[in-house]
Amino acid sequence: MIEFKGVHYPKSVILHAVFFYLRYAVSYRDLEEILAERGVKVDHATLNRWVVKFAPLIAARAQAKKRRTAPSWRMDETYIKVKGRWTYLYRAVDRDGQTLDFMLSERRDLLAARSFFRRAISANGVPERVVIDKSGANLAGLQAVNTILKFTGSGRTIEIRQVKYLNNIVEQDHRFIKRITGPMMGFKAVHSAAATIAGIETAHMIRKGQILANGETAFQIFARLAA
């Protein structure tokens, strides 16, 4: 259970506020106004603290509970502005568009790519193949992972394909993330950006049906992950 002790608002209010921010294209000041119209007075700084604190905790539970994904992956990066500078959001989906993993990085290089692939494999298992763009860093990162698998695993390595049109599915999937982050006007710190994006990705996973619904609404699924 995620601990809500020490907060001065009901758990349901916090979860509704966090979910609405992560699911819909609103700013903290927009959300502050929306809540005030419903009789809940909470300032935008408090809303920010709630998102940064609770979003990554719920995201971790969503990652553990998501439906099984396909062994054919599509990986790409998109850009997120943090402290006025562009950072790199590494993302991977399977052949059906289901979210596998994501990672915010200040660099776009071999070390970042290798870290992302190792993280995604840890959460989802070793894929049969991964489609990437023409990035030399991503290719080198996958090759480094293959070297590790060759000598420490079963000997089976990952098939690497660099075919741009096959990556359209992940490029299209970036759009939801960008649509939600757009009104946020950039982030002030990397850790808060990573926490917020983890929550946005979770809301997107719920929207795509990756968490078993049991007849629940999207918010009810989100709240169950926090239970």
Automatic annotation (TrEMBL):
Top-level taxon in the UniProt lineage: Bacteria
Stretches assigned to the Integrase catalytic domain: 52-226
Cross-referenced SUPFAM superfamilies: Ribonuclease H-like
Keywords of the record: DNA recombination, DNA-binding, Transposition
InterPro entries linked to this entry: DDE_dom, Integrase_cat-core, IS_Transposase, RNaseH-like_sf, RNaseH_sf, Transpos_IS6
Cell cycle in keyword set: no
Function: Involved in the transposition of the insertion sequence.
Name of the protein: IS6 family transposase
